[in-house]
UniProtKB/TrEMBL annotation:
Entry keywords, A to Z: Aminotransferase, Pyridoxal phosphate, Transferase
Molecular function terms, GO-annotated: transaminase activity
UniProt xrefs under NCBIfam families: PRK07777.1
Annotated Pfam families: Aminotran_1_2 (PF00155)
The name this protein goes by in its record: Pyridoxal phosphate-dependent aminotransferase
Cofactor: pyridoxal 5'-phosphate
Lineage summary: Bacteria, Bacillati, Actinomycetota, Actinomycetes, Micromonosporales
Residue span, Aminotransferase class I/classII large domain: 26-382
Top-rank taxon: Bacteria
Top enzyme category: transferase
InterPro entries noted in UniProt: Aminotransferase_I/II_large, Kynurenine-oxoglutarate_AT, PyrdxlP-dep_Trfase, PyrdxlP-dep_Trfase_major, PyrdxlP-dep_Trfase_small
UniProt-listed PANTHER family: FI04487P (PTHR43807)
Enzyme Commission code(s) on record: 2.6.1.-
Amino acid sequence: LVARMRPFGTTVFAEMSALATRTGAVNLGQGFPDTDGPAEMLAAAAEAVRGGANQYPPGPGIPALRAAVAGHQKRFWGLDYDPDGEILVTAGATEAIAAAILALCETGDEVVCFEPYYDSYAASIALAGAVRRPVTLRPADDGRYAFDPAALRAAFGPRTRLVLLNSPHNPTGKVFTRDELTLIAELCQEYGAYAVTDEVYEHLVFTDAATGHLPLAGLPGMWQRTLRVSSAGKTFSCTGWKVGWVSGPAALVAAVLRVKQFLTFVNAAPLQPAVAVALELPDSYFDGFRDDLQRRRDQLATGLTEAGFETIVPEGTYFVTAGIGRLGGRDGVEFCRSLPERCGVVAIPTQVFYDDVEAGRRLVRFAFCKRPEVLAEAVTRLRTLP
Ligand code: PMP
Ligand code: GLN
């Protein structure tokens, strides 16, 4: 194995899901729903398979999906992208992020990101021979995660090539505010940096969040320098489909396509028309999806607090982060490895998403994208913890 990949073991999600399978624990680790997405989408996929959409589709993605991605971004965020040249379909957000970093970063270039960061970020940055410059998010007095503006400024420098921003943020559930995004935008422009934005949870901002979802690309001066990434997995409860996309100015999207064509060439043909159908569902689908997850968030957050966790109620995403200190937990990895045996539940130790391991040592992440009865069972089990 090449040196740059040696620091990366098995992903925490694979390890923890295997642990859940082995022990029969309730799996609130890896974030995937336990119910299917919209029936119209599922029917369209079956229809496409039967209808013969089973050979290589066009490299940038089928026109109907690119048009639907453009229409969706215009409808919800007021962003304009030309389906011909400014949108590229990818194998999930994961490939879009990796291909964007590989397309933009020379060896030694720096990528500013926020920690805890989604696990593929560090590996994709390493694959490109680039260097990550994480800025730590910490819970502030108002219970929201925040970063020190001076630390963000200090992370920028002459080698900064891009900022990799995830909002709504996994694992903290933070939704970046307009003020925070404005500072990021100013620094990008001051340092001539690009932005790659991971917005896979764009439809999971809860009604009591301090702000709605704001794409960085919508801020002044940012459309031209931003590659905006999203995917169908979360919004349409189909994480196993791996249909994602990246939108941006034509020159940047062309650069990503140059890399993407040699990573996967093209993506699952029959799933593309189905995701196009889903993206065109009425607003009521998206509202209902959010409200449903918000109820589950409340159910799990309340249950975790009752079980003795120090719960931080998330403004968005699939996840609640919880402190284990009051339960006597000193290390999240130890805690999560023993949790299935102690009470039959799997969670994710948040520290694996930090360079500054201490900042996340006593935090664990629980997913609430599960049926209410599954969440209830998990809470019942967690309440048996001494
Ligand atoms: N980014 C974040 C923040 C995620 O939580 C995930 C997990 N779904 C991904 C990217 C990967 O998305 P996809 O499955 O579409 O590759
Ligand atoms: N995004 C999901 C999570 O954070 C898992 C994705 C994966 O397993 N790679 O749980």
